[in-house]
Amino acid sequence: MKLGILTRPADRRVLDDDRHTRAMRWIMAVMLLLTVLAAALGLGMRGAAQSLDRQLAGRLTVQIVEADARVRETHAAAALARLRAMGEVASAKAVDRAALAELLRPWLGADGVDPDLPMPALIDVDLADASPAAIRRVDAAITRITPAAHVDRHQRWMSPVSRFMDTLVWLAVGLVVLMAGATAAVVILAARAGLEAHRETIEVLHMMGSTDIQVARLFQRRIALDTLAGGIVGTVVAAAIIALVGWRIAALGSDLLGGVALGAGDWIVLVALPFAFALLALGAARVAVLVALGKRL
C-alpha cells in the first residue's frame, strides 16, 4: 500500500461500505456547498470594498453655502477656477441647478425648481493626488476664497458602508473556518465509526502483519475520496447559485452592487476548496485512526 488519496481496487473492497459511503458524500456535498457560498460572499464583499475605496478615494464635493445668489455664484466661479489650476486636481465640474433640483425632487417636489429657493453651489472634484496632504491643500485653497465653502470627502461619508463590507468579509472568513472545523469533526466521527464497524477486519489485517499506518491509509484514502467526490458536487451546485445571483445583481444596474463580482482569482480559490477539504479530511482521518488504534494496544 502506498500513501496517497487514490486506492487500489483490492484496498477499496476491504473497508468499503456503500451505504456509509453515500451518506459521507452527501454530508460533504452540503458542507462544501455552504463553504463555497460563504467564501464567495467574502470574496465578493472584499472586491466590492476595494472597488468602492478606489472610486471614492479621490472624490470631493465643494459646497458654497451663501444666501446671496450673486455672491454665491462669484465665489463658485473663483473656486472652480482655482481648483482647475491646482496640480492636485484632475478635474473639477460645477453641478448645475437643474441637476441639483432633480436630486432634491423626492423631498421638495416641484418647489425644487423655484428660482427663489436658495441652494448651495456644488463643485464635483476628482483628485489626481488623493493623499491627506493634498486634500488639506485643496481645502485650504477653497477656504481662502470664501469661508462659506465646505469640502466633503466622499470616502468619509461612505466609511460606514466600507466598515459594513469589511464586517461581512470577516464573517465569511469565520464561516469558512467554522465549516472546516465541522468537516474535520465529521471526518473524525466517520473514521471512528468505520473502525468500530470493521473491527474484525482490522484485527485480521493486524494478524496478517499490517501496521497501524497501513490500516490508517485505507481509511484516510476512502474518506478523502468521499470528501472530494461530495465536495465537487457541492461546489458545482454552489457555482450555479453564485452565477444566478451574479446575473440578478447585474440586471439591477447598481454601481454599488455591481462591485460584488468575482474575478478569475476568486473563482480559482472557490474551485480549490473541495481539494483543500479533501486534504483536510485526509489528515484528520489519519490522526483519528492512528490515535484510536494506539489506544487499543
Task: Characterize the structure shown.
The chain is α+β, with helices and mostly antiparallel strands and 297 residues long. It folds into 2 domains: 9-53 and 160-296, no CATH class; 66-147, no CATH class. Helix content is 74%, strand content 8%. The chain has 11 helices and 4 strands; from the N terminus they run ααβαβαβαβαααααα. Strands 2-3-1-4 form a 4-stranded antiparallel sheet. It is rod-shaped. The protein starts with 8 loop residues before the first helix and ends with a helix.
Architecture blueprint of SSEs:
Layout: H1 9-15, H2 18-56, E1 59-64, H3 69-85, E2 89-95, H4 97-108, E3 121-127, H5 132-145, E4 149-153, H6 154-157, H7 159-197, H8 199-207, H9 212-252, H10 255-258, H11 264-296
Antiparallel strand pairs: 1-3, 1-4, 2-3
Helix pairs in contact: 2-7, 2-9, 2-11, 3-5, 7-11, 9-11
What is the average of the pLDDT values?
78
* SS strand fraction: 5-15%
Q: How do the strands line up in the largest sheet?
A: 2-3-1-4
Large-scale geometry? rod-shaped
Tally the structural domains: 2
Keywords: Cell cycle, Cell division, Membrane, Transmembrane, Transmembrane helix
GO cellular component, one term: cell division site
InterPro entries: FtsX
Transmembrane segments: 168-191, 223-247, 267-293
